[in-house]
Amino acid sequence: MKSYAENDKNQKNGKWSENANDAAKKAEEKLDDIKKEARDAAETNKDDKSEKSL
């Protein structure tokens, strides 16, 4: 009975770990998207400024 309880606990911990890893991966992808958008916006803003100075 004890080994079943430990096995069940380990499975729950494993599932929690998988969920945490999935969340971390999604957060990292979201951060990458935000960084890309920020770079694109900065380049666009830079281009706008250089056109105005001409």
Notes on the structure:
The longest helix is centred in the middle third of the chain and has 52 residues. Helix content is 96%, strand content 0%. The model has no long low-confidence stretch (mean pLDDT 82). It is built from one helix and no strands. It is rod-shaped.
Topology (SSEs and partners):
Layout: H1 2-53
Region (Disordered): 1-54
Protein name: YtxH domain-containing protein
Biased composition (Basic and acidic residues): 1-11, 23-54
How far is it from the N-terminal to the C-terminal residue, by CA?
A: 80 Å
How would the global form be characterised?
A: rod-shaped
Percent range for helical residues? over 70%
Give the helix tally: 1
Which residues form runs of ≥5 with pLDDT under 50? none
What gyration radius follows from the Cα positions, in whole Å? 23 Å
Derived from helix and strand composition plus strand pairing, the structural class reads: mainly alpha
Short description:
By secondary structure, this protein is mainly α. It has one helix spanning 2-53.
Feature tags:
mainly alpha; rod-shaped; 54 residues; single chain; 96% helix
